[in-house]
Specification:
The protein is an alpha/beta fold. The protein has 13 helices and 12 strands. About 40% of the residues lie in helices and about 15% in strands. β5, α8 and β6 form a beta-alpha-beta unit. α7 packs parallel to α8 and α12 crosses α13. Bound molecules: pyridoxal-5'-phosphate.
Length: about 400
Amino acid sequence: MPHVSQRLANVCESQTVALNSLMAKMRREGKDVVALGAGEPDFDTPDFIKEEAIAAIRQGFTKYTPADGILELREAVCNWLKEEYGADYQANEVIITNGAKHAVYEGILAVVDPGEEVLLPAPYWVSYPEQIKMAGGVEKILDTKKEDGYKITPQQLEKAITKKTRLLILNSPSNPSGAVYSEEELAGLVAVIKKTGIYVLSDEIYDTIIYDGKKYTSMIKFKEIRDQLLLVNGVSKSFAMTGWRIGYLAAHKDIVNAVKRYQGHSTSNPTSVSQKAALAGLLGKKDFLAVMNKAFTERRNYVHQRLTAIPGVTCMLPQGAFYAFPDFSFYYGKKGIKGSNDLCSYLLEQFNVALVPGMAFGMENNTRLSFATSMQALVKALDRIENGLKSLL
Ligand SMILES: Cc1ncc(COP(=O)(O)O)c(C=O)c1O
């Protein structure tokens, strides 16, 4: 048996992988599976972005770039942060990363020492606990309730902070719940963050996908915690660019420098061509965002209305991102279904619809479904979910 380090031996495989391989097998067998598991927009990257990338290749922009990314892109991020949120950041306070996922990991690595605690509200995005572990940190889960809109309160945060606490990870709009913190709610958390001196990593990768005409508040708005904030964002979701792998981290220049040193020794730099493509997105036409949001709004409304019409099912109306997170626990204990994993396997194997069990997000009662797919697929999927659940009664 080969030796695998403790560091990696302890990292769990994504719980969605098993379901994905089962789904692939079923498709190979010719079954018509509807997949609502994906965490990416079904839209294609806009043509004006692709054209810039093609031009960059033709012009030979195919070599190493600075470890922290090209200056034009870092400046474009600063302009975006200024225009969208009124924040004043300089190019040396921003680093371009290999996707937002890597920005989160590098941010944790930069501020958390081994043994220090990282506060993580549940439900959480699947990669956070594993990244905390890989960085040597200790996760401390803050459970949230449906009644509180799956959001933590300032009192809860303050109570959880100990001498060992270094970082809070916040994700609004949330994957998986679709919860979005209001300015007032964030202000309450900011007061505690300021008072206690902990860091906050705010993962705002879904910031442009907001419903009902509401205005999104970024953590970057709160200047009083500027030195404690690690802001993560990127182009993956807003510009339908998941495969290009471009994200960024904005923080105090010393933190950005530490990440730059790490990045210089690990990935060298984010892909040159992708950086040009991301630059085109940030500088280019924003009407793409409105088109995508209009489609997501229609789908969200449809999915929510169908889910809440099923007996025993409750579901918060998502305020952002493109996921619904219904509570299916009414069906646990029926016909041998023990929990979210069982329920998802049952719906996949018997009704050909793939969802992600809430367990993967630290909330066993729920199940995540992505509505970043066509209306046609959603209609089919919801018919199957409804039939599947009703068959358990
Ligand atoms: C909350 C959250 N953060 C980060 C990411 C990763 O983004 P990227 O594809 O830019 O690495 C995702 C993707 O699913 C996500 O849901």
